[in-house]
Amino acid sequence: MRIGMVGTGYVGLVSGTCFAEFGTEVVCVDKDESKIARLKAGEIPIYEPGLDDLVARQVSAGRLSFTTDIKDAVKGADAVFIAVGTPPRRSDGHADLSFVFQAAKEIAETMEGYTVIVTKSTVPVGTAREIERLVREVRPDADFDVCSNPEFLREGAAINDFMRPDRVVIGAEGERAKEVLRALYRPLYINETPIVFTAPETSEIIKYASNAFLATKITFINEIADLCEKTGGNVQDVAKAMGLDGRIGSKFLHAGPGYGGSCFPKDTLALTQTGQKYGTPQTIVESVVTANANRQRAMADRIIKACGGDVKGKKIGILGVSFKPNTDDVRDAPSLVIIPALQDAGAQVSACDPAAVEQASRYLKGVEWCEDPYSVAQNADCLAILTEWNEFRGLHMDKLAEIMKVKTLADLRNVYKADDMARRGFRYISIGRPAVGMEDA
């Protein structure tokens, strides 16, 4: 089989490469000439563990290629996937579909013979129908179907998520389109991966509903953490007991500074806007969006409180600025709210991150970027863990105690144990657990 992948961002590059691993001939197209030049030179423009080796292997095998000419991707393709960005519009938060619709028009102008056009981008309900209308407008006599095939890739684990997914969701109506997509995903049948066929509208809603529910779990456990702090409870024990209930599950019940990244913030916002559009307000998700924004702002206040209520002229060290480990993505990361708030309060901020410094430096100004955690902690009045990278899980606490000006650790990811920090003489603040050494704060 042969497919075209329009867009070589996170979703397009990972999906195209993994399809090639399945044995499919894949041509990835992007208008960004510099990005395509880098890919042809073997450089990967995104951070995703294992992707560089997989791309190199598929290019070497002749199954994966890159181009700036959409004709090369569409001509002779059994299916063409649209995997371009759908960022929220600044004016109202609705998903910006201009790149999706432009791609659809260009595909329509180029396709030959029967073609399945597939939206891989995250798009609001009704988008597949609108693409069908646009394509028919450009090519009234064209032979095609439009399908929805949302992605469920976690940054940092995307390859495994594509190769061993919990399910594959396909919104398709025509039998020819279903057969093409069945053939594309046939390698997953050996793993007995559920293939869920639905109407396109249902498929589009599934994507938003899934991400909104996960964001809700995160926000819920964060509010339970606040309750634990006021009552002497321990949120980690609460989450463990909740997670043992098969109806609930343990994933996404880790209290912290709030969710971020490229998906949850924009998808929850888009779902609330869609609900308003159709007169079906998504009040739970609306509350989640508000609560998460408040959560991130509150984390800066928590660090300030750990420093006695005043950080003016004090040095605050930050460990981790990406929204989660194993990615360089800082989009809507808590760090983008917390660090500026600390700076506005007069703090001097130093920080490090194993992968996200280049990305973060575009948004965060006035930060002293360091190579390692100990450089960050040197003469610091407080050290705060914002991202639970493995590199921060086994810090040499005795060394930190020697080099920090004040032994204060704000662990916003609950990496360490409170009793251990107490023995080492640290003022220790975590999430949803009793603080240690805060009596004089």
What would you say about this model in short?
The chain is α/β, with parallel strands linked by helices. It has helices spanning 10-21, 33-40, 51-61, 70-74, 98-110, 127-138, 158-163, 175-184, 200-231, 235-243, 264-277, 283-306, 335-344, 357-360, 373-377, 397-403, 418-423; strands spanning 2-6, 25-29, 64-67, 79-82, 115-119, 144-148, 168-171, 195-198, 315-319, 348-352, 368-369, 382-385, 408-411, 427-429.
Label the overall shape.
elongated
The strand order across the widest sheet is 3-2-1-4-5-6
- Percent of residues in β-strands: 5-15%
Task: Give the total of domains.
Answer: 2
Can you give the helix content as a percent range? 40-55%
Verbal overview:
This protein is an alpha/beta fold and 441 residues long. The protein has two domains: 2-198, Rossmann fold; 200-441, Rossmann fold. The chain contains 17 helices and 14 strands. The protein has helices at residues 10-21, 33-40, 51-61, 70-74, 98-110, 127-138, 158-163, 175-184, 200-231, 235-243, 264-277, 283-306, 335-344, 357-360, 373-377, 397-403, 418-423; strands at residues 2-6, 25-29, 64-67, 79-82, 115-119, 144-148, 168-171, 195-198, 315-319, 348-352, 368-369, 382-385, 408-411, 427-429. Strands 3-2-1-4-5-6 form a six-stranded parallel β-sheet, with helices on both faces. Helix 11 packs antiparallel against helix 12 (283-306) and helix 12 crosses helix 13. The longest helix has 32 residues, at 200-231. The radius of gyration is 24 Å and the shape is elongated. The termini are far apart.
